[in-house]
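Run folding on both entries below.
>entry_1
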Amino acid sequence: MPHRIVVLALDGLLPFELGIPQRIFGRSLGTEPLNRGRKLYDVVTCSARPPGPVLTDADFSIVVEHGPEALATADTVVIPASYELGPVYTEGRLTDELAAAFAHIRPGTRMVSICTGSYVLAAAGYLDGRPATTHWASADHFQRLFPGVRVDPDVLFIDDGDVLTSAGVAAGIDLCLHIVRRDHGTAVANDVARRTVVPPHRDGGQAQYIQRPVPDTQLATTTTARAWALARLERPILLRDMARQESMSVRTFTRRFREEVGVSPVQWLTQQRVELARRLLESTDLSIDQVARDSGFGTSTSLRQHLQAALGVSPTVYRRTFRSTTAGGRV
């Protein structure tokens, strides 16, 4: 049976964010011989009250055909943002209607929020003592309202196992693609990303949008240096070598890089090497030592440390979990 995703539509919702789960999960298709072309997720939208119209922040409403009982069927619940959260936003508590809806959710259900949907998860107690993120403009208010939550305002999303939160608006796409990648591997996530015409993985975090939404076109960028580095990830890359590609000092290059990408050059290089290692582990028969060399980590020990830090698993466990059965031309 496909994994059941239930999206909870609340009054004041943003239509764009409501559509993200349907677009990403609803278009995720199997790529393996036994399930090629089959839908991997069953996406259902429900309201916190009986079926009927739900107000949006636009000049139209939507009609939802399922009531809160649908939450009892969910393997994953997704809560998009709403601009009319009432006491959830002002006092950090669920309304009686929301509390009754949440009572339908089975223990162990994976919980996901997009943007300020994180307020609902926090008010329901799902984020107590856990890391979480939300739209950068709401991060300070969110932290004051829920001091027991460890808020990170800089990242695009946070995966804390059975509870996942995303930053603002389009970061919901990043999080949903991440969930597809976690559930079914890179091949499926890349396929739905291509058909949605979005990148399968974005670099950096919210900082790049807070500090400089559009870089000054009169100033040099770091695009050339990044392209240069991506073409030689398997080799040693020094910061001064990257700065030289842009004819900048190391100090200027580092500042400009962080403004544009949201992380330091070293952090970005590590992210790119982790992504390359993941692709090699999933799609090739290379040994762990060779994957470490080809992705620029040098040794299997270094690869293991970085993969553990980034993903929480060893290279061997990652390969066993996400290895494509069609890798290396085998079916």
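>entry_2
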Amino acid sequence: MRITPASELSARTQKLQALMQGAGLDAVLMLQSADLFYFTGSIQQGVLYVPAAGEPLYMVRKDHGRARMESGLKEVVPFKSPRYIPEVLADFGYAMPKTAGMELDVLPVGLFGRFQKVLEGCVISDATPLIRTVRAVKSDYEIEILKDAALQVDQVCKRAREVITVGMTDIELAAELEFTARKAGHQGLTRMRGFNSEIFYGHVFSGADSAAPAFNDTPLGGLGLNPYVGQGASYKRIEANEPIIIDFTGAFDGYIVDQTRVFCIGGLPDPLAKAYEDMLRVQDLAKEIARPGVAWGELYDRCHDLACEMGYADHFMGAAGAQVSFIGHGIGIEVDEFPFVARGFKDQVLEDKMVFAFEPKAVYPGLGAVGIENTFWVAPDGLKHLTFSDQELAVL
């Protein structure tokens, strides 16, 4: 079990505190699991209190002993409920904050109300943009873990070449690949921050199912096994001359990468084969222009424009009427982190060591979908691959 070094936690806290001071916040209180893991190294029932200056306090209801074992923070203290926060703060010499930030994008309204009562008189604002800004830039430590996660998806692709056959169902293929990933140390949980956003390992589907839209904010959806799930693999049987999409996450020691590869038995119809090569061209353009200082929205606009110029206006990133307005998403502890390579992000720019998955895809209802996805980190001289599986269309 990898324990997040205390030096990592300290550096993250200091970056957040600098942003807090600029925003005029006396404190930030965190409860969401991914944020707790990032700033404490542990996920337990409790509250992380980060003052604008000084040591953070990880107040844990259950389980304090495990939090103390897993977290490299100096102060990990037991407490019974939020109403004891003033008492704990006083014990450590902290006054009650007059301005505080919380994760208002994910915090349930009822729970927020409890904290409002505890922090009576405190002006509470949304700290999520500050938290996500800190998390967007990865350290060398984090990038090395992401490389380990990339090894999992490469093993998944190698296994796919061995097991794909005409007549097997999409769910049978998904089970084989999930088994492979799990044996390679996949943690199982693949967290997403967005409301009602859910994913399990990834998506595996074939033929027309790969072009079926779903509720999730992704270019591809799939029918799934039933309406309760409504995405991913179904009982459809794989046939020759149709695309087989393996859009899969690697998830290791808390960190996630995202990769898509396309397989087929015998070849693809000409429109899909051409579309696959053109999606590679869109990726090549992203690799050419993505540098620190480039706006997220500029990267989106230029790649989207290229796709439209090549004739994919009604097929790029979803079928007409179900298209998404992004081509890439930050990734790390969650699948949907900063940066967003998306329409409208004109003022946010790429920074050195930001990590994102870039996924240009073309969708043809009734025929299928094709595309490529890789996870990259941003370097001064361009994008560096984290995922690395063979990008050629895999004809079996």
